[in-house]
Amino acid sequence: PFNPRGIYCRRSGPGKDTAGVGVGKLAIVLAMQKGTQIPAITEARTGYLLSLQWNPVARANYLTTVGACGMVSYRLQGASVSFFGPRMATRLGNFAQALMMACTGLAKSTAGIYASLLPGLPFAAEGAVETALSAHADLVGIGQGKLNADLSNMIALMKSIMPVLYARLLGWGLSNGVPGLSFLFTAGCYLVAEAVLCTVRDIHKLLL
Question: Where is pLDDT greater, at 194 or 128?
Answer without folding.
Answer: 194
